[in-house]
Amino acid sequence: MSERDADLLRLIGRRYVIDVLDALDAGPHTQASLRSRLHARRGPLAAALRALAAYGAVQRLDRHGSWDARDTAPVVYRLTPDGSDLVRRLSRLDVWTRFYEHYLHQQP
């Protein structure tokens, strides 16, 4: 398994990552709308969004451009072009089969 595939496997193993990708594939969302749609707690959802942003799949849109800045306008999250490619890649059965086989053949 390539290093990129291993990184992807770690990413999609995180809580809410697949759900966030699915929601953002339908269009941009605020954190509040994602929390409502996914019935997610704030901390784990924020961790998933940060992991996706670090992977280059999600972009945060606000006036400040910082994860730490406070603003009264809602922050919107959307997929980047790489994020859209990732969603398409993950929609293929052969990708999931390869990940499953990797786990199946790992030593306990």
Automatic annotation (TrEMBL):
<protein>
    <submittedName>
        <fullName>Uncharacterized protein</fullName>
    </submittedName>
</protein>
<dbReference type="InterPro" id="IPR036390">
    <property type="entry name" value="WH_DNA-bd_sf"/>
</dbReference>
<dbReference type="InterPro" id="IPR036388">
    <property type="entry name" value="WH-like_DNA-bd_sf"/>
</dbReference>
